[in-house]
Amino acid sequence: MTEEIIIAGFGGQGVLSMGKIMAYSGIMQDMEVSWMPSYGPEMRGGTANVMVILSDERISSPILRSFDTAIILNQQSLDKFEQAVKPGGTLIYDGNGITRHPERTDIDIYRIDATEEATKMESSKTFNMIVLGGYLKIKSVLKMENVLTGLKKSLPERYHHLIPMNKKALSRGMEIIQKTMQENHS
Questions:
Q1: What is the phi/psi pair of residue 62, to 5°?
Q2: CA distances from 160 to 100, 132, 133, 156, 174 (A)
Q3: Mean pLDDT of 118-145
Q4: Segment 43-57, tens digit of pLDDT
Q5: Residues near 72 by Cβ (< 8 Å), separated by ≥ 6?
Q6: What kind of fold does domain 2-179 have according to CATH?
Q7: Between 117 and 62, the higher pLDDT residue
Q8: Other C-beta atoms lying within 10 Å of the C-beta of residue 59
Q9: How many CB atoms neighbour CB 173 within 10 A?
Q10: How is the chain split into domains, by residue range?
Q11: Judging by DSSP bridges, how do beta strands 47-55 and 2-10 pair with one another?
């Protein structure tokens, strides 16, 4: 089993930390792991993405051109990575600010309105955990207890009081993710 993932969005959305939590979780499950971040010099507000590979065999290269799963958090990332999802793969996206929705019919597409949900929860910082919760519901690659340990490991200790809220956000993401209906245009 190998799961090749791209997480892409704006800097400040928690893209890199979401990837780091996934990588830590994979390590705790004795998986081979690759975590490769990429971000523009502007950081907050600039584009950021991270490639994560979780595998039960050796990873030959951390550089990927196509992905089993794309987690897309803004329009620019959707434009850039929609075509990079392997046929039969999965695309998860947050609908906030999306003007052109995913159009492919050969992949599974899920929408998660994490921005809206984080606002309802009165914590914009839980956005990425809502998205991660949605991913965990669809792809059972990582065990929840390992994700929570990964979260604890990646959060500085002064933020550990936020772990219960993040746990709630993971659960909420699992509840609100929706598969979109694509019409087959072939």
A1: -80, -10
A2: 38, 18, 19, 7, 22
A3: 93
A4: 556 678 999 999 999
A5: 8, 9, 78, 81, 82, 91, 92, 93, 94, 102
A6: Pyruvate-ferredoxin Oxidoreductase; domain 3 (3.40.920)
A7: 117
A8: 14
A9: 26
A10: 2-179
A11: antiparallel
